[in-house]
Amino acid sequence: MPQNQSRSLLSIRDLEVAFPGAGRGVLKGVDLDVGSGEIVAVVGETGSGKTTLGRTVMGLVSPSAGSIVFDGQEIARLRGRARRKLRREGNMQLVFQDPLRSLDPTVTVADTIVESLAITGTGDRAERRARAAKALELVGLDPGLLDRRPGRISGGQRQRVAIARALVPEPKLLICDEPVSALDASSRAAILSLLRQLRDETGTSMVVISHDLASMPGFADRIAVLCEGVVVEVGKTAEIFAAPKHEYTRLLLEAAAVPEIKEFTYVR
């Protein structure tokens, strides 16, 4: 874990989300901290509120109550110009679950990766292309893919392109919503290994949303277990696996058939 993990980059307190007509809250009094340079996995079964949590932090869902402090700024209720300013700064980025649906099929890999730079007028076209090539190399892809479109690359390559796009603005926080669920087993291991390596190299904090508890050993620094909109347990990964405190966590571990804990080996 990087040595600069000394404070909370993201601090969530008493967060609640309720959708009209849902009949009950989706998130209920959620508290969660993410340190600088830390990987926190948010795990739980389908419908537990994991994706809603990530989208609320990103400002795509409005909270009913509570506080979200990012890098010292309260962002839970930013609207209009203030919200647009936060997004343009690019310090928070989201990697969506389905890399095929999240990438425009009509746009080249190069233009996809540098879209945020083009919007903010950063650099000229040649400079942006150079940054796109560097981003591809960072995620272990050949810059020769720059002129291809998403339909002409594999699923694993598309997810790496999505990660490269998120990394170009050099964010402080990366939120990954089920980043490997659409991939085969070998691609899943490679993407998680890549994310861990990127954290080690760049110091980017990460919140990784996943239903796959078995993939977290050797990857996440800490785990937050979400059950029906409530965080029922938070702890270091090894401690969660060795001695879960909540019955729901124990059930998740039993269902996951967790393998022996081991570190990922990063392979480009």
Quick rundown:
With 268 residues, this protein is of the alpha/beta class. The chain contains 10 helices and 10 strands.
Give structural notes:
With 268 residues, the protein is of the alpha/beta class. The chain has a six-stranded mixed sheet with strand order 6-7-8-3-9-10, sandwiched between helices. It has a four-stranded antiparallel sheet with strand order 2-1-4-5, with helices on one face. The longest helix has 18 residues, at 185-202. It has two domains: 1-91 and 172-268, 3-Layer(aba) Sandwich (Rossmann fold), CATH 3.40.50; 97-170, no CATH class. It is 35% helix and 22% strand.
Layout of helices and strands:
Blueprint: E1 8-17, E2 27-35, E3 39-43, H1 50-57, E4 65-70, E5 73-74, H2 80-89, E6 92-95, H3 99-102, H4 109-113, H5 115-120, H6 125-138, H7 155-167, E7 173-177, H8 185-202, E8 205-210, E9 222-227, E10 230-236, H9 237-242, H10 247-256
Parallel strand pairs: 3-8, 3-9, 6-7, 7-8
Antiparallel strand pairs: 1-2, 1-4, 4-5, 9-10
Helix pairs in contact: 6-7
